[in-house]
C-alpha cells in the first residue's frame, strides 16, 4: 500500500448533502483537503422537521455539484483517489440510495474501490481524524436520530453500552421546542430560552436516573413537560423560559448519570488505560450546559473529554471519507452490490431496543 491514501466521502443520509476529500498517511494521521456541506435547512423549516421525500429529491439535485466542489477545492481528480466512500446507512433510505448509487457509479467509471460506510462509524472515528486518539475509547453520540454510548475498540469493532429506549435526545429537544412554540431546530432555541429561565420552578421526572446500565429514555420527560405546560396555559415568555430551563437541567443530570455508569464500566474493563477518553459527537453536543455537565462528570472521574469541532460533530462528508480511509487501510472494501440499509446497528450483537431512537428522521 502506498504511504498515504486519498478518499472521497459522500454523506446523504439526512438533510445535509455533503462531500469531502480526506487523506490518511501510513501512521494514521489524517488531513481534510475539502469539506463541502449543503444544508437543506430552508427546504424543511416550514414543516418543523425533515421531510424524507423532499430530502431525497434535494440530494439528487445537489449531489453532483457538491462532489465536484469537494474535488475542485481539494485540487484532485478522480484518478488521484484511492477509494470512494459513501454512507450506506442507517438513515433516510431515499437519501442513502442517492449517495450510495452515485458513489457506485463514480467507482465504476473511475475503476476505484468502493467503501460502504456505516454513518455511525463515521461519527465514531472522527476523533481519530481530529485528535489522533487511540483505541479503545468511549463515544457519546447525541443527535436528532441517535442517543448511544458506544465502546470503540477498533475499526469495525463496537459495543453498544447504552441507547435510548424511545426518543433520541435531539428529538426530545425538538419536540419540547415544538410543544412550547419555539422554532425548528429546537435544540438551539431551547438552549437560548433555558439560559433566561428559572431552574427551580418546575421539577420534572428524571427517566432512568440511578438505574443500572447506561440506557436512556426521554419520552416520559416530554409528557411530564406537556402536562406542566397545559396546567399553566396560556404560556407567557417566562413560563417557556422556565420550562426550558427545567428540561435542559433534567436531561443534563440524566446524561451525567448514564455516562457515569459507562465510565465506571470502562475503568473496570480497562484498568490499565493510560488516557481514558470520552468522545462526544452529534448536534446536541453543541449544548453548552450539557457540555459543562459532562466536563464536570469526566474530570471528577479522571477522564478526558474530546469534542471535535462542531462542523465535524454534525453530519458531514469528512467523517465518511475518513471512515472510508480507515477501512481501506485495513483492506475492508465493498463490492458494487453493497446494499443501502435504513437500519444498521454498529454493534450487531446488541439486542434491538423498542423504538431505539429511530422515530425521528435523523441519524
Ligand atoms: O447531528 P445533527 O446535526 O443531525 C443529526 O441528527 O444527524 O443533530 C441535530 C440535532 C437536532 O435535534 C437539534 O435540535 C440538536 O441536534 N441540537 C441541539 C443544539 N444544537 C443542535 N440540541 C441542544 N442544544 C443545542 N445547542
Ligand atoms: Zn449523524
Account of the protein in words:
Residues 354-363 have low confidence and may be disordered. The strands form 2 sheets. The chain has a 5-stranded mixed beta sheet, sandwiched between helices. A 5-stranded mixed beta sheet has the order 8-7-6-9-10, sandwiched between helices. It is globular, with a radius of gyration of 20 Å. The protein has helices at 41-45, 52-74, 93-110, 119-130, 169-179, 186-196, 219-231, 237-269, 288-300, 310-313, 318-329; strands at 4-11, 16-25, 30-39, 83-89, 114-118, 137-142, 147-154, 157-163, 277-281, 304-306. It is of the alpha/beta class. Helix content is 43%, strand content 19%. The protein has 2 domains: 4-128 and 312-356, Nucleotidyltransferase, domain 5 (2-Layer Sandwich); 135-307, ATPase, nucleotide binding domain (Nucleotidyltransferase, domain 5). It is built from 11 helices and 10 strands. The structure holds 5'-O-[(R)-(carboxyoxy)(hydroxy)phosphoryl]adenosine (KG4) and zinc ion. Residues 119, 123, 143, 315, 363 line the site of zinc ion.
Amino acid at each position: 500500500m502506498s504511504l498515504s491514501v486519498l478518499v472521497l466521502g459522500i454523506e446523504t443520509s439526512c438533510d445535509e448533502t455533503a462531500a469531502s476529500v480526506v487523506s490518511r498517511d501510513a501512521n494514521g494521521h489524517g488531513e481534510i483537503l475539502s469539506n463541502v456541506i449543503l444544508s437543506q435547512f430552508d427546504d424543511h423549516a416550514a414543516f418543523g422537521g425533515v421531510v424524507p421525500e423532499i430530502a431525497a429529491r434535494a440530494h439528487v439535485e445537489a449531489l453532483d455539484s457538491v462532489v465536484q466542489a469537494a474535488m475542485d477545492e481539494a485540487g484532485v481528480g478522480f484518478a488521484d483517489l484511492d477509494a470512494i466512500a459513501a454512507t450506506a446507512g442507517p438513515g433516510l433510505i431515499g437519501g442513502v440510495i442517492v449517495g450510495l448509487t452515485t458513489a457506485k457509479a463514480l467507482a465504476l467509471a473511475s475503476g476505484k474501490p468502493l467503501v460502504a460506510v456505516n454513518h455511525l462509524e463515521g461519527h465514531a472515528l472522527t476523533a481519530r481524524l481530529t485528535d489522533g486518539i487511540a483505541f479503545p475509547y468511549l463515544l457519546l453520540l447525541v443527535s436528532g436520530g441517535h442517543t448511544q454510548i458506544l465502546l470503540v475498540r477498533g475499526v469495525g469493532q463496537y459495543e453498544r453500552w447504552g441507547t435510548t429506549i424511545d426518543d433520541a435526545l435531539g428529538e426530545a429537544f425538538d419536540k419540547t421546542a415544538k410543544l412550547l412554540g419555539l422554532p425548528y431546530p429546537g435544540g438551539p432555541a431551547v438552549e437560548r430560552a433555558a439560559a433566561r429561565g428559572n431552574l427551580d420552578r418546575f421539577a420534572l421526572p428524571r427517566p432512568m436516573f440511578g438505574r443500572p446500565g447506561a440506557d436512556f429514555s426521554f419520552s416520559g420527560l416530554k409528557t411530564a413537560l406537556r402536562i406542566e405546560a397545559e396546567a399553566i396555559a396560556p404560556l407567557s415568555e417566562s413560563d417557556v423560559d422556565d420550562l426550558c430551563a427545567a428540561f435542559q437541567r433534567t436531561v443534563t443530570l440524566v446524561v451525567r448519570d448514564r455516562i457515569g455508569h459507562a465510565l465506571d464500566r470502562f475503568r473496570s474493563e480497562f484498568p490499565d488505560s493510560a488516557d481514558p477518553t470520552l468522545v462526544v459527537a452529534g448536534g446536541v453536543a453543541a449544548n453548552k450546559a450539557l457540555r459543562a455537565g459532562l466536563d464536570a462528570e469526566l474530570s471528577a472521574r479522571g477522564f478526558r473529554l474530546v469534542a471535535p469541532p462542531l462542523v465535524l460533530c454534525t453530519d458531514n462528508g469528512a467523517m465518511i471519507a475518513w471512515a472510508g480511509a480507515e477501512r481501506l487501510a485495513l483492506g475492508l472494501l465493498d463490492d458494487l452490490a453493497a446494499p443501502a440499509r435504513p437500519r444498521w446497528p454498529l454493534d450487531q450483537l446488541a439486542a434491538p431496543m423498542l423504538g431505539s431512537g429511530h422515530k425521528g428522521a435523523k441519524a
